[in-house]
Specification:
Elements (H helix, E strand, L loop, with lengths): L3 E7 H17 L5 H20 L8 E6 L1 H14 L6 H17 L7
Antiparallel strand pairs: 1-2
Helix pairs in contact: 1-2, 2-3, 3-4
Length: about 110
């Protein structure tokens, strides 16, 4: 399966996503194997975000590719853990979740 492209993401939003994933991974313990798999994929994604955000590489906008399992993990992360609908981070994740939904032809998430 091809990689999922995330494009034109602002540096501040990417930094916020990195910090939010970090908060969830440090504060929530996986309850079962499915959540442990979700957290493993989020940890992998977080590592990639950290590499992209390295201070010597800071940019205004970023484009990168992630494997399907990380794209699905990001969608699940959005549907389970993002509640504040007024932030730019929510809007960015909603757009990504919708694109993942379309590409993988998934059922509509319950929010």
């Amino acid at each position: 399966m091809r990689k999922f492209q995330i494009k034109d993401i602002k540096g501040d939003a990417l930094d916020g996503l990195h910090k939010l994933i970090d908060d969830i991974l440090n504060e929530v313990s996986p309850l079962d194997d499915y959540e442990a798999l979700l957290f493993a994929n989020l940890r992998s994604l977080q590592t990639k975000l950290y590499a992209k955000l390295a201070p010597h590489k800071w940019q205004n906008k970023y484009t990168f590719h992630i494997p399907p399992e990380e794209a699905l993990a990001l969608r699940i992360f959005y549907t389970r853990y993002i509640d504040d609908t007024s932030t730019s981070l929510h809007i960015m994740l909603e757009r990504i979740a919708y694109n993942v939904h379309q590409i993988f032809e998934l059922p509509t998430p319950k929010k």
